[in-house]
Amino acid sequence: MKRQHTFTGGRALLALAAVSILVAGCGGRTGTEIEGGEGSGGGSSSAASADFGDLTEVCQDGDATTASAQGVTAEQIEVGVFTDMGFTKNSEFVDAANVFTSWCNDNGGINGRTLVANTRDAKLMEPRQRMIEACREDFALVGGGAALDALGVKERLNCLLPSFTAQTVQERASGADLEINASPAKVAGYDNYAGFRTWALNEAYPESKGAVGMINGDSAVTKVIGAITQETLDSLGATIIYNELYPAMGVSDWTPYAQAIKSKGVKGLIFMGSFDQLAKLEEVLTNMDYKLDWIDANNNAYNDQFVELLGRSADFQNNLVDLGGVAPLESDEPAVEQLKELYAKYAPDAQITLPAVRAWSSWLLFAKSAAACGDELTRKCIYDNARAETAWTGGGLHSASDLQNPIPPSSCFNVEKVTSDGWEAADFNPDSGLYRCDIPMRKLNQDFGAPMTLAEVGKSMDEVQ
């Protein structure tokens, strides 16, 4: 089997004690700081180049002299990294922060200022508490995320704290003011999987259009995702013949679900849940000798573990994932290869995940924007510099994002499929390098909630300093 770093995705569904929550890859530790250095953050004897992908001199020496903003002194810059690691045990955002700050500080930091990352572990239920702490100490938030991110947005806007997020989950957080999402990602009011679904139903597997099934976790949060998906399927003229919820804690025996899928004749299945649960369902389907035309495994499944868990279903079934315009790790993109090298140097035991790649793009954007501010590093300066980017690719890690005009979001997508040898690109007719960008982004008709604004908390951009 081809080996690669784990590349888990932006829609991981985690089982809670009572509910299933849509988590876009959350990780971290609470009450810790990550400073530059090899492996766990200690000093490193040799620095890699300060260039990354097609970006030059991302970090640099300098002679900063001023304490120009909260969290900024002449010596260092403190930023916050949100995570849910205390709940998920997933350290992907902390690992990304460790690798980036280690590499950047080895190359002089930002104009000579050392980067210090303060981990803000929301532990799923405490984003508001961690945001209050960040408001007291951090210059900005960089490269993180939390499942219940909407719970902290009000506090963030009240303290005028910019966020260079790796990803967002809830509608009130997705695209909120003073937030910059460097990589292609969820935007409230749009279904960012519409292009993938259009390709699957209208081009790749048109015979499945009249026989689509959906399985979703039973919680209020994930039901919203299901409703968004159903609206898109309806707009494409698809017929949903099977729509089922599964218990939040998972299923011990997937046989009844598999029997229902087979008896109804489902040809295309959208699974919104954890990949280990999907592998169990597919084992039953495969043992029944029932093969679907396609299964949307969601990009949480984009990893070696899923391939191994599938066993013979890896070749018998047709598992697909949409990476949403992010370069796959098996590609030969120079930025992807460099990212692997930096992880091998600074965090050899860490896994590169889809949220981690998005976090890396956010760190790059933060560093470039901060460096351009020089000695007078302020929130307004760094925010304005970041917003000026109209074709940001994270050095080549993903399709271009127009940060000046983030709405509508990028329509680019790319599809990977499972084989027993590992992951490989599906035949989705890319028209822009690794990506396909010719299917317009679809705006939702239903109101699922709008991102929070500064005006809602009695603030304005004029107050950002």
Write the layout of secondary structure elements.
Blueprint: E1 12-15, E2 20-23, E3 33-34, E4 76-83, H1 85-88, H2 92-106, E5 114-121, H3 127-137, E6 140-142, H4 153-158, E7 163-165, E8 179-181, E9 190-191, H5 194-204, E10 212-217, H6 220-235, E11 240-246, H7 255-264, E12 268-272, H8 275-287, E13 294-296, H9 304-310, H10 313-316, E14 319-322, H11 334-346, H12 354-371, H13 379-387, E15 415-419, E16 422-425, E17 442-443
Parallel strand pairs: 4-5, 4-6, 6-7, 7-8, 10-11, 10-12, 12-13, 13-14
Antiparallel strand pairs: 1-2, 3-5, 9-17, 14-15, 15-16
Helix pairs in contact: 2-11, 2-12, 7-8, 12-13
Fraction in helix: 25-40%
Q: How far apart lie the N and C ends?
A: 53 Å
- CATH uppermost class of the largest domain: Alpha Beta
What would the principal axes of the Cα set say about the shape?
Answer: globular
Compute the average pLDDT.
Answer: 89
Secondary-structure-based class equals alpha/beta
Task: Give the tally of structural domains.
Answer: 2
Largest sheet geometry? 7 strands, mixed
How many β strands by DSSP? 17
Main β-sheet, spatial strand arrangement: 11-10-12-13-14-15-16
Could you name the CATH homologous superfamily of the largest domain? Response regulator
Total helical segments? 13
> What is the CATH architecture annotation of the largest domain?
3-Layer(aba) Sandwich
Q: Percent of residues in beta strands?
A: 15-25%
CATH structural fold name of the largest domain? Rossmann fold
